[in-house]
Each structure stands twice: as structure tokens, then as C-alpha cells.
Amino acid sequence: MASSLISRSHHIDFDSVFRFDDAGIVQMFESLVSTGLMEFLGCPAIFHEQALIEFFENGSVRDGMVVSTISGTAVEIRESVTISGTAVEIRESVFAVAFGLPTEGLTDLSEVPRDLLSNAQKLFSASEKEVSISCLKKEVKMPFRLLSDILAKSLFVKAGSFDAVTRDRFLLMTAITFDVKVNWGNLLFGVLKEMVTPDSRQAKGYAIQICVLLKNIPGLELGPAIFSRVDQAEQLYFVQSPVSPPAAFSHQESSSSSSDVSIHFDSEDLLMRNPEAAHTSAPVDSNVSTAALEDLRSYFSKRIDESTYELRSKVNEVEFNVRGDLVKQQAWLRQTFQNACDILERQSTQISDLKKGLVAPVGTIFQDLFDIKKNQRAHEAKLNALDGQVAALRNDQLEFQNRISADLLSLSTQFADIVEFIRGGDAKKGESGSSSRPPPVRVERRPLPTPQSPRDVAGGSSAVRIPTFPRTTGTFAERVEQARRHILESGLVISVEEAAERIRQADIQESDRLQRERERARREKRSSSSRRRRGF
Questions:
Q1: I need a labelling partner for 497 at 20 to 30 A (CA). Which of 127, 325, 440, 530 fits?
Q2: Region Disordered: start and end of each range (predicted)?
Q3: pTM for this entry
């Protein structure tokens, strides 16, 4: 981790770069001085490796302040902090004063005036065409001439997506180029807080600057210091100028940089000042430095163009195709989901309407069935009561018939005695009367014919029709007498017992007929109720 911290130190030795013979490079670094960032980027290049590692591993943000622990000592960068019992004030203003940072101006780069953005889009384009900054990677096709790329690289180190970082760099360069006031104290302090935020994608930079802050805290032991060497810490970023088409080189290296161009100088390419001899100046051969810079610029420009042009084109094409396919697939999935939701909503609406339409008829049907069942139960109760009454009446009738039969038997006996008495008297009178008087009519007792069924009566010609007599009324004795008289008038001889038996059979048949009619009426009512329930 220490090597990565040192590689992201973003340190500039302004005394060395100002000796370059390239006026463009000197002007670029002078523009950084005018922004007030000279002390921030050119602070002493001293690293405390162990302290930096503990600072980032234990760092967090609490209530807008940076909190960490180094060697068991609590370190808080906020407005007011206590460290090992000693009060230390490292507020945002103190942070700005420590590096001479401006505290006035824009705190949000998106507030850069639109007219300056339009001018910068043409100025930063190598072909002088307007550059698109829509935050869509596939639309960023024009290479930038990054006038102040070293500052952009130090502030925005691939924290978010490629497009957002590129746009922030563009806004930052626009503000620097057109001398827009920026509150660097607030901006850099905010980036520092993002570095120690857990799960943040902000790269861990500002190694030298953090060491300067920690060194000013009294009572904090930082351990041994490491003076950065030229081949470890010096990273210079230059303006890329339009050059001729790239030529082939034997030394090829893959590059995955974004729209910026970075050039790394080591101790063999360029003689730089050693931090241990920071206060001693050695004469610099300007011709050698200029020639080396020109050769390196030409070499790296061609190498970068050759290695990245075709790769970027292919990557952009593949990304464009993949994005198009993803957009189509997303649109298809969204449309399919919307169609499914519409179908489900329509079905739900139809089911709701059907339920609403069936509530009233179903309620009416159930009410009718309930009423029918209630009436049926009432009728069944009445029929059961009537059956009980009929059974009681039949028992009474049988008892009455038995009594009547006994009475009729007694009457018939008496009647026979009277007839015999009358016959005996007539016989005596006949013996004393004239012999020419006609003999008396003899009345014979014959059994009543057995009643036949209607089938036998209505059958063939051989069936004998039994004479019927009209309905009798009155008491049982009166009815018996009426039946006997009717039979005698029809030419048949019948006794009183036979007439009484005929009356009893007629009553039984009438009772059976009435019972059958009631059963038939009950079955018809039940069948009609069942047909109504089935919907016929």
C-alpha cells in the first residue's frame, strides 16, 4: 500500500520545472501558481509510510470530520480536536492556510458559466471542434488538450465512472484556464474526507500533504521518514499536441488511460533535484534538458497514438454495440412487463366487474332458496301434523266401524226375528184364509259380489259390471239403509250386513283415494321445487 500511496503523491518540484526551456511547459506550471496551488502541490516530499497506512486503514468520517488512529493516538481533522490531551485546531480554514489555498470562489464545479464551457469545448479539442461533455462515454470522441492535467489528475483519480470523472476534469480545466475563482480549500478538504470514507471509490492520494498535516500535530510520533526518490514520486503531465500519424516502434506497451495523457520521468530520462539537497542548486544544462524533453515528447506521443487509437476505436465500437443491445433488451423487458401488468389489470377489472354483477343475482337466488326451503319445511310440518290427524281419524273410524258392525249385527238379528215373526203371522193367516191367495214372496239372502278393480271392470266383454249406488249421506245406519234400498231397487237381494260391509269398503277405498291424491300432490310440489333449484 505504501508504494501506491507514493505513486499517487502528486508532487511537483516547481524550482526544477521553471528551469525548462520549453515555454509552453513553463507557462502551464505558472498557471498552477496563479491558482494558489503551488504550496499544496510543491510541499516537501517526505513520507511516513507506517503513519499513512494506519491513517487510511483506521480512517472514517464522523459529523463532517475525519477521524483516524495512529499508534494508538486519536487523530481528528475537524474544527476543534483533542489529541493525547492537547487541543489541536485543524478546521477547513486551517487546512487552507497550511497550503496557502484560496477560500473564496466556486465550491461546485457545475456552477462554471456556460459561455466559458462553450469556449473551452472548442479550445480543448485537438481539431478545434466543439467537444461533447454529455457524461456519456460513447460520445466522448475528441481528444482533449489537457492544459492543466496534472492538477486534474491529482484531484480526481478515477473515483466514480469514467464519464463523470472526465466531465469533472473538463470543468476543472475550464475554471483554471479562464481564471475562475475556485474555493480550493473547500474542494480539496471534501476530497480528503471522501478518501477516508469506508467503501468509497475515491483513490487514496495526498500522501505528502497528509504527512505535512500529521507532522504539525504535537505529541504524535510518525516514525521514520522516507524521502521520495525521483523514480518513485515524480509524475509530470504535459500537453499533447497534434502530431503526425503514429509510427511503429519496437518497444510496445499497453495503456488503459482515459482521455488524459501521462508521461513518467525516471532518473535516467531527466535530472531532477534530490529532496535531500533541497537547499542546494546545481547548474542544469538547458540544451540537454530541452533535447531530452523533445525526444521524449515525440516518442511518447507516437507510442500513445499507436497503442491507444485503434484500441479506443474498438472499445468504443464494442461498447456502443453492447449499450445498444442492452437498451433494446431493457426496452423489450420493460414492454413485456408492462404488457403483463396491463393484462393482469384487465383481468382483475373483469373479475371485479363479474363479482359485482353476480352479487345481486346470487344473493337473490340464495334468498329464494332459503324461502323455498323454509316453506317446504312448513309444508312438511303441516303434512306431518295432517298425517297424524288422519291416522287418529282412521283409528277412530275403525273403532266406530267396529261399534257400528256390532250394532248392525244386533239390528239384523232383530230384523230377522221381526221378519220371521211377520212370516209366521202370515202363515197362520194363510191357513185360515182362502186357498186361492198367492203365495208370499220369498226373500233369499245372497252374499254381496266381490268388488272388482277398475281394470277388470273396463276390461273385455267377459267382465261383469258391478252395479254402483249413489253416494250416501247421514249416519252410518242411514247410509247402510240407503245402500240396501238402492241395491234392492236394482233387482238384487242383499242383507243388512252385506250393505254395511259394502259401505265400509267404499269408505276405505275413498280414504285410500284421498291419501293417494295427497301423496301425488306432495310429489308434484317436491319435483317442482327441485326443478326451480336446478334452474329448469
A1: 440
A2: 426-470, 504-536
A3: 0.35
